[in-house]
């Protein structure tokens, strides 16, 4: 899920409170950490199914992907990864020095994403290079990072047609394992110390790939899909689109003119993209309402009596064979909460923005609870107020730009990794 403007505002007050529970013994420390921001958590949503971001680190980061040229502490090299019927271009970012570094493998979200977690579709606007910034930050903190183009993605504006027809979720799981093997002999990497990091759709992928993976030391998820796919997709309309459209509605409904204003308004990525579904040629003065949403045919969409019903039908149709077919197919992956039993013995970090427009913060809480209920003794949940799907600043759910990741989550990620390297 993705896109991107910037905010460098430091999330000092977002650190919230932290609770520790459990001691226990065994291969991990038995520490359970739950960090909830200063605001109460009460919302619901899933799927980033449209978004990405960039990062602004407390130290200097590259302005548009990759390593900052002036930063000699960070090195990078290209890598080719065979996915069987496709060769993916990737990049390993690593700290300067002679000592092999633990590896963090970054797995992106929905849609045709490139190695920076940018939407590679022709003309896409959600290009915040989240993974480029995370990679640079990790290298500065002593970790190698591997990121790669998604299966059938060659680069920005270069997407193989097979992406829309042949890709499966199980294939994406195999790709993670192929990526780890591809760098297994790199002398700059400690292949005995591997972590998986998933964002949005990628959270379900890393949860599945982690099961049985040798030398795995932990899993990190951001903007995680923690509720069933269908529930999350429907929730986007209730949590984001309907409240956003109320700002433009006349007597509780919208017509083509109001939708054009909403389209040109200041809504975030999810609001903007789903509003475009409601009218054909929405930017034109001649735009017409999508008849599937104008149920009574009066050239208005009632936000209370038509939109909810039509949105559910739209989601179901797209899951059955449309743009969300990956999540409706028999080969789709369960949400992360549903995979918790198989993850109970793996150290687990969940990062989530409380104003995530794609996936509700309650989904993250659900994941953490599922891990606890299944006996996990090393799971950490951190949430961030006024932060969206990419952990950029987001003033509310309707205005989540999925922009640059803020410094605090990057610092928290590095600290969690260092803590686990000391065990």
Automatic annotation (TrEMBL):
<dbReference type="InterPro" id="IPR053145">
    <property type="entry name" value="AB_hydrolase_Est10"/>
</dbReference>
<keyword id="KW-1133">Transmembrane helix</keyword>
<dbReference type="InterPro" id="IPR022742">
    <property type="entry name" value="Hydrolase_4"/>
</dbReference>
<keyword id="KW-0812">Transmembrane</keyword>
<feature type="domain" description="Serine aminopeptidase S33">
    <location>
        <begin position="123"/>
        <end position="254"/>
    </location>
</feature>
<dbReference type="Pfam" id="PF12146">
    <property type="entry name" value="Hydrolase_4"/>
</dbReference>
<keyword id="KW-0472">Membrane</keyword>
<dbReference type="GO" id="GO:0006508">
    <property type="term" value="P:proteolysis"/>
</dbReference>
<protein>
    <submittedName>
        <fullName>Prolyl oligopeptidase family serine peptidase</fullName>
    </submittedName>
</protein>
<dbReference type="GO" id="GO:0052689">
    <property type="term" value="F:carboxylic ester hydrolase activity"/>
</dbReference>
<dbReference type="GO" id="GO:0008236">
    <property type="term" value="F:serine-type peptidase activity"/>
</dbReference>
<dbReference type="InterPro" id="IPR029058">
    <property type="entry name" value="AB_hydrolase_fold"/>
</dbReference>
<feature type="transmembrane region" description="Helical">
    <location>
        <begin position="49"/>
        <end position="68"/>
    </location>
</feature>
<dbReference type="InterPro" id="IPR001375">
    <property type="entry name" value="Peptidase_S9_cat"/>
</dbReference>
<feature type="domain" description="Peptidase S9 prolyl oligopeptidase catalytic">
    <location>
        <begin position="343"/>
        <end position="393"/>
    </location>
</feature>
<dbReference type="Pfam" id="PF00326">
    <property type="entry name" value="Peptidase_S9"/>
</dbReference>
